[in-house]
Design brief:
single chain; alpha/beta; Rossmann fold; seven-stranded parallel sheet; 7 strands
């Protein structure tokens, strides 16, 4: 039996990396997936790749009016949401001393503010017993140089899960955090800001990871599937870490 048969899922930032892998995995397990992102051209390509039971809606999570439009459309078309994956995120490495107000506002605007309003705007459509999955990062738990704002914004997401687990208990909505470690996604292009090429960063990270390799988006998507499905029906408020053991040592 398919684990998400007949479910309606929304994945923000679903045009690449972990978001795309999650959308594909959900559809394979019987869900209809709404995928959001800021670039319509990329979203259209993603829908073509998935091939069925997926729809792309352009929306920037840092813009509340975009979120209003997004959930109004989903409400009109499907009337409910069973699974919400708040995945949209932004990272731009900046060391203390070089951080600007613009950098801070953009990072928190997408990662912290965007996540909060994504969930808040989705709540009227969330069915009782639904699942909300917040994508954080092991950067929220470990100190990585030049990740000051990113780490802090992802720590806020972990805090949201704790608070919302209590606030939504009467509706039996499960809120959990999923924290990936280093995963092979387009996010590594951002390390150019530090003057490091992607291959150098990969090798440095591999040396720190007990399993000796980077993660794959599909591996994080499998963890998201667990949290989205009834297999995790008694799991709420946790932080599920998928990092090859990096944060455990």
């Amino acid at each position: 039996m398919l684990r998400l048969e007949g479910k309606i899922a929304v994945i923000t930032g679903g045009n690449s990396g972990i978001g795309l892998a999650t959308a594909r995995r959900f559809v394979e397990e019987g869900a209809f997936a709404y995928i959001t992102g800021r670039r319509q051209g990329e979203l259209d390509k993603v829908v073509a790749v998935i091939g069925r039971n997926a729809k792309a809606i352009r929306a920037d999570v840092s813009e509340v009016t975009d979120l209003d439009r997004l959930f109004a459309q989903i409400g009109a078309e499907k009337g409910k949401i069973d699974v919400l994956v708040a995945n949209a995120g932004f990272v731009e490495p900046q060391s203390l001393g070089a951080i600007t107000a613009e950098h801070f506002d953009k990072t928190f605007g997408i990662n912290a503010r965007g996540t909060l309003f994504t969930v808040q705007k989705a709540l009227p459509l969330m069915r009782e017993g639904g699942s909300i999955i917040l994508i954080s990062s092991i950067a929220a738990m470990k100190g990585f140089p030049a990740h000051d704002t990113y780490s802090a914004s992802k720590a806020a997401i972990r805090s949201y899960a704790r608070t919302w687990t209590t606030e939504l208990k009467d509706r039996h909505i499960r809120v959990n955090t999923l924290s990936p470690g280093p995963v092979e996604t387009p996010i590594f292009e951002s390390y150019g800001a530090l003057g490091d090429d992607a291959d150098k960063v990969r090798e440095q990270l591999k040396a720190l990871i007990p399993l000796g390799r980077m993660g794959r988006p599909e591996e994080v998507a499998n963890a998201a599937l667990f949290l989205a499905s009834d297999e995790s029906s008694f799991v709420a408020g946790i932080n599920l870490v998928v990092d090859g053991g990096l944060s455990a040592v």
